[in-house]
């Protein structure tokens, strides 16, 4: 991404010129930044390599190019989640590791729940020697962004500084892999006809959304990939546990849920996104990456007929209209926007 640091009195004429040339851009207090989006309307840029993604989810169609988020804002939130720990202020011009930042000495913070050494978390660096940028036993320490740097035995966030070191709420040093199943259906009337949005005149999609217990924000029901687990199994497991409460229903209901879920997750989904996530839990040494896959109940006779029931980490669960005005956790709004574009629905 090109970056120009300009005097304030130069911004107006250059902004006018770019507008005339129809060149996308953004302006902030640090100057003008040229934006190179993958497609108009969302802040992702195309990875130089747009080859089809190889993954364990081999039945997914890859109709959306491999992308990474150019935003690095939520990863620099002033106060770290579930704590009173303050980040060092990192300006846009200081994010990249190649940029000089004299005196950069952020707080080292690991949440008590991680420091207690649960089975899903790594020990402290020094007490073990993780093999970064490779498959380390059953733990995949490879990044979708390519090779990341390791400094003083600790991995460096590939998207740059966050104003905080350590692991925060994340269990793994380096990439923490998640899977986000985006389950959608069409919003229909009493006759089963698709409902069109009154402004865009496009059909309205609905997706299964959960309200997270930890922060109270609405989100896509997803979770962490267990060591050695296939991503396809993670997608199905997390949706079943968080949106259908498969762990808490009677045995007589489990078989029905399993049948419907298996039917939906065997359908041709498409990989919406695979890469780094701008997440408030990210630190200089630990960060979130995800694979998001859309599974669409076209006829409304699969998951649509199952009663949603919050479970696991979900406080509430419901079908929500896909709309740009609906606020979501982390970068989930951008994922829904990509789904809307693919399905040619209202956004």
TrEMBL record:
Q: What Pfam family is a match, any one?
A: NUDT9_N
Family that this chain belongs to: Belongs to the Nudix hydrolase family. NudF subfamily.
InterPro entries membership: NUDIX_hydrolase-like_dom_sf, NUDIX_hydrolase_dom, NUDT9
The enzyme's main class, written as a single word, is hydrolase
Recorded catalytic activity of this chain's protein:
ADP-D-ribose + H2O = D-ribose 5-phosphate + AMP + 2 H(+)
Q: What does this protein do?
A: Hydrolyzes ADP-ribose (ADPR) to AMP and ribose 5'-phosphate.
Q: Which residues form the Nudix hydrolase domain?
A: 186-342
Instruction: State the Gene Ontology terms under molecular function.
Output: ADP-ribose diphosphatase activity
The protein's assembly and partners: Monomer. Interacts with GLOD4.
Its EC number is 3.6.1.13
Coiled-coil spans are none
Q: Give the protein's recorded name.
A: ADP-ribose pyrophosphatase, mitochondrial
